[in-house]
């Protein structure tokens, strides 16, 4: 059989018919609901991840807060002292 | 391509209308199935690939550019690329299988099958890139420009592939003929 005859024989015989079930399968595939997409935040963000970030922050903030309060008290004490000293000094003039 | 699809149907299809998609499917299925069948050589795989191709077409419908090509051409491009990829995916096992078939029992098997199946199986022995060129040019009688557009290759490459494919197929036919005569 030469090439031309071969090609003619393929052309002459049509391939088998496509089954009707193919469309049903296509239809089923394209109409089925898409699987729920997993978002970036739900994958990578979990509240527990906040612990190593927040814990040292809270500690640092706490230190500053305590320090500030301590200084406030110190300042008030100093002021009270200086005021009383000033008063004593002022009356000692007379 | 010879397949006319109404503009309104195309627009509806792009918007995702299933009925319009069915119309497109009904108009193009035969053309796509024939080519895929000739590429893979059996109904089961051809139907599976046709299913995958149409699902892909539906999913990627928004990528279709009306001004670039007709919808049927675009569908054809998707179908051929998908089929070639599918064949490439199986390449390792398939290639060895084909080579063995050509050398050893392929011709014996082919003689036992019906004539059409023999012919199709013979075509399967060619490399996918040559096979598609022969199917599109010699069997489906499309023009060089059309094929180069579908396959996204230059006319020169197409002609060279066609030439190599034809000569390889010619050799296979000679082998087939010789084996047949020896057996008779």
Give the overall silhouette of chain A. Answer: rod-shaped
CATH homologous superfamily designation of the largest domain in chain B = RNA polymerase sigma factor, region 2, helix turn helix motif
Largest interface comes to: A-B, 23 and 34 residues
List the quaternary state of the chains: heterodimer
Number of domains of chain B: 2
Strand content of chain A: under 5%
Number of strands of chain B: 0
CATH topology of the largest domain in chain B: Rna Polymerase Sigma Factor, Chain: A
| Rg measurement of chain B, Å | 18 Å
Q: Strand fraction band of chain B? A: under 5%
Q: Mind explaining what this structure looks like?
A:
- The complex is a heterodimer of chains A (94) and B (184).
- Chain A is mainly alpha-helical and 94 residues long.
- Chain A has a domain at 44-94.
- In chain A, 73% of the residues lie in helices and 0% in strands.
- Chain A contains four helices and no strands.
- The N and C termini of chain A lie far apart (140 Å).
- By secondary structure, chain B is mainly α.
- Chain B has two domains: 1-89, Rna Polymerase Sigma Factor, Chain: A, CATH 1.10.1740; 117-184, Orthogonal Bundle (Arc Repressor Mutant, subunit A), CATH 1.10.10.10.
- Chain B has ten helices and no strands.
- In chain B, α1 crosses α2 (18-40).
- Chain B is globular and about 55 Å long.
- The N and C termini of chain B lie far apart (43 Å).
- The chains are: A mainly alpha (94), B mainly alpha (184).
């Amino acid at each position: 059989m030469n090439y031309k005859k071969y090609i003619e024989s393929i052309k002459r015989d049509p391939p088998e018919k496509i089954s009707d079930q193919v469309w049903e399968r296509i239809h089923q595939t394209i109409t089925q609901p898409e699987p729920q997409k997993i978002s970036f935040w739900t994958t990578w963000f979990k509240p527990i991840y906040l612990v190593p970030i927040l814990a040292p922050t809270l500690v640092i903030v706490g230190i500053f807060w305590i320090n500030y309060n301590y200084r406030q008290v110190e300042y008030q004490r100093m002021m009270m002292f200086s005021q009383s000293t000033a008063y004593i000094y002022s009356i000692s003039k007379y | 391509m010879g397949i006319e699809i109404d503009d309104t149907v195309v627009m509806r299809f792009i918007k995702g209308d299933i009925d319009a998609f069915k119309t497109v499917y009904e108009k193009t299925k035969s053309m796509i199935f024939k080519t895929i069948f000739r590429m893979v050589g059996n109904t089961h795989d051809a139907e599976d690939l046709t299913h995958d191709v149409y699902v892909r077409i539906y999913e990627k419908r928004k990528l279709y550019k009306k001004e670039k090509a007709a919808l049927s051409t675009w569908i054809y491009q998707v179908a051929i690329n998908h089929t070639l990829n599918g064949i490439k995916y199986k390449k390792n096992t398939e290639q060895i299988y084909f080579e063995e078939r050509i050398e050893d029992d392929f011709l014996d098997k082919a003689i036992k099958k019906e004539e059409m199946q023999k012919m199709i199986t013979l075509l399967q022995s060619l490399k996918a890139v040559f096979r598609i060129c022969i199917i599109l040019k010699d069997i489906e009688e499309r023009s060089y420009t059309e094929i180069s557009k579908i396959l996204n290759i230059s006319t020169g490459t197409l002609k060279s592939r066609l030439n190599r494919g034809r000569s390889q197929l010619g050799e296979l036919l000679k082998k087939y003929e010789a084996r047949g005569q020896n057996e008779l």
